[in-house]
Amino acid sequence: MLEKMAFIFLTIRKNVFQWFAISFFFTVIYYMVLMLSLILRFGNLPNYVNEFNWVENVKTIINSTPSLLDTVMIVKDEWVFEIGYMNYDFGSGISEWSLFFAPAKILGVLFLGCLIATNYLLLQRQRRVCTDACASVSSAASGFGALCVALASITMSWVVCCSTPTWVVGLAMMGLGVSTSLWLEPMGLWVNLLGFSVLLGAIFAAAGRGRGASIILN
Amino acid sequence: MRGIKSFFCTVLLLTFFSIGAQAEKIRIAIGHQSMCTDTYTAGIVVKELQLLEKFLPKDGKYKNAKYEVSWSDYSSGGPITNQMMANKLNFGVMGDYPLIVNGAKFQATESLRTKYVAGTGYNLKGSGNAIVVPVDSDIYSIEQLKGKSVSVPVGSAAWGMLLKSMKDTGIKTHEYNLKNQSPAVGAANIAANKIDAHGDFCPWSELMEFRGTGRKIYDGSETGVPYLHGVVVREDFADKYPEVVTAFVKAVYEAGDWIREDPIRAVDLMEKWTGVEKEVLYIYFSQGGHLTLDPTIKPKWVDALKFNHGVLVTEKSIPALDFNEWITEDYVKAAYLDLGKDYQMEKDSLVDPAISNAKLPMEIWHSREGISSYASIDEFLAAIDTFRKTGAKLNATYVYDVETGLKLFGKTAFFVKTDSGFTTFLRKPDADNFASKKNGKVMDMESALATLAS
């Protein structure tokens, strides 16, 4: 276990710029894909942007929420930025769809990007230490884990009276059925945990020696 | 030395008193919805007429208070709850389903709570929610929705109404394709004939009817579950400033009075403030309109909210809600007392449109001359005919559904001509049924007008 971890960290250290670039661009591309999906789904380009004073808002939450657990739960949903389409055909305008950026969610996606970058580096042919079969399984598991986390991290919103934006709102906006989305809604945390667990497992599998190669730690 | 001592004493005393006299800044942040008519008496009207400022306490512990009132407009109730949790809003104004989610979400936390302190208005039977089909659709009743695609904003009061109406009709969940669509998307899809039916909350159905894109086939009143809106406030704010909460309820009461005093002036201004057409607003706020403005909290409302909570628990697994802890009449009673109004009397009164609207006259909104009333449908039709001959522009016409007492746009009503004259209906099956019993003929308003010439 320790040997695997050391190998993982060594691989990252040796390719830190590539690792960082993959992680960063994955996060950027993730939000670009969300935006593109919304544009294609609704057929409108965004026409409004809202910025929020995240730091000030978090200070307000901390000062006015007695329970630490409540504070964490509220802060994680705090937005910093919102971009969307305002439909002015009705009233003084009604937001038809929006994509919001919450730092806690962005960090989650960035962490996902880091894990994907790590696995990518471990599975590259020139430094791969695991067997080919293990590499295939690790790739597939990595893809599955990434999909779970990516879906559970969706931050899309629209006017659905009671619904506060949750991950399934995004799926519903993309056409997921009502019963399925209602059934899936409470499972967000578990889908996220499952995704991260599978990804971590895939990384450890990829870092395991399988074809007699010795792991050179320095 | 003595002089220096007394100087410092004076400075200290002055500093102490100046701190004591410093004005306390009280931030009052309210989340409202300008696209939800039933919230207006605690939202846009209070804001624009500055009614809260009028009633804010200015004596006692508030003598030196400096109020900072801010209003934020939202498209739905969900985000208001989120902003209240983050303490960016103290008050929230929303419909019954979002109110329940608000109370339940707060009660699910360890340390935060809200209080339901007042209503804004209601419709006893549930009008305000409705199911609409494209205007040229051949669907005329909810029974025909079997096998069709129906959209609704899931989680809204309209969604609750749709589920109940389908269940009451005997249409099972798998027998129709339910889609989750926001009001704007649903309305656009109805206009483009891309969906078979769309269920929505106030005032979307009437908006679609007024614009000529949609036609109601089912009104929420058929479920018999009251449709109501109300005000929630963060408990920590209410505990700290109870008089401010009472002031807010007084403002809600006065907003209702202001609308009742002159509904035409009210809808004219509300159109300017919200962008929602005044003819649509009139169907809610006029005499005989869908909405009864009333801040009292009636036992029937608590029952309705409990029923709605049951739907939300079953369908959306929302947390439990202790209604006794959440609902309080303290502030609304205090407001009535301060205003010299009889709370119990108003609490006991219930307006049933089927009874109260039975004898109300039909109305024509002439673009230049305003609104005129007609005791019978025959007179009403004759007046439209006369106006049209002069080339006058008519903004809207209003009749009543004889079954429910619901106010309707003349152009969307079904007219039945019998020997004793015309009768109007919301739903075609009701009109057909009446016509067959009375040996009458069902027609739309244009055909009814054509009969005048023949």
Note the main attributes of this structure:
heterodimer; A: 218 residues; alpha+beta; four-stranded antiparallel sheet; 9 helices; globular; disordered C terminus; B: 454 residues; D-Maltodextrin-Binding Protein, domain 2; 3 domains; five-stranded mixed sheet; 20 helices; 44% helix
Can you give a write-up of this model?
The complex is a heterodimer of chains A (218) and B (454). Chain A has 218 residues and is of the alpha+beta class. Chain A has one domain (2-217). Chain A has helices at residues 2-14, 16-42, 54-64, 68-75, 103-123, 132-152, 167-173, 178-184, 188-206; strands at residues 48-51, 81-87, 94-101, 156-157. A four-stranded antiparallel beta sheet of chain A has the order 1-2-3-4. In chain A, β2 (81-87) and β3 (94-101) form a beta hairpin. The relative contact order of chain A is 0.15. With 454 residues, chain B is α+β, with helices and mostly antiparallel strands. Chain B folds into three domains: 25-123 and 227-348, Periplasmic binding protein-like II (D-Maltodextrin-Binding Protein, domain 2, 3-Layer(aba) Sandwich), CATH 3.40.190; 130-223, Periplasmic binding protein-like II (D-Maltodextrin-Binding Protein, domain 2), CATH 3.40.190; 357-453, no CATH class. In chain B, 44% of the residues lie in helices and 21% in strands. Chain B has 20 helices and 18 strands. Chain B has helices at residues 2-21, 44-48, 51-55, 77-85, 96-107, 157-169, 183-191, 204-210, 235-240, 242-261, 263-274, 278-285, 299-316, 323-326, 330-339, 343-348, 353-356, 377-389, 428-438, 445-453, and strands at 25-32, 66-73, 91-95, 114-123, 130-134, 149-152, 177-180, 197-200, 214-219, 227-234, 292-293, 362-366, 370-374, 394-400, 407-409, 414-418, 421-425, 441-443. In chain B, the strands form four sheets. Chain B has a six-stranded mixed beta sheet. The longest helix of chain B is centred in the N-terminal third of the chain and has 20 residues, at 2-21. The termini of chain B are far apart. The A-B interface holds A 42, 57, 60-61, 64-67, 69-70, 73-74, 77-78, 87, 89-97, 158-165, 172, 177-179, 181-182, 185-186 and B 34-35, 73, 75-79, 81-82, 85-88, 95, 97-98, 101, 105, 109-112, 153-159, 173, 178-180, 182-185, 187-188, 201, 207, 236, 274-276, 312, 315-317.
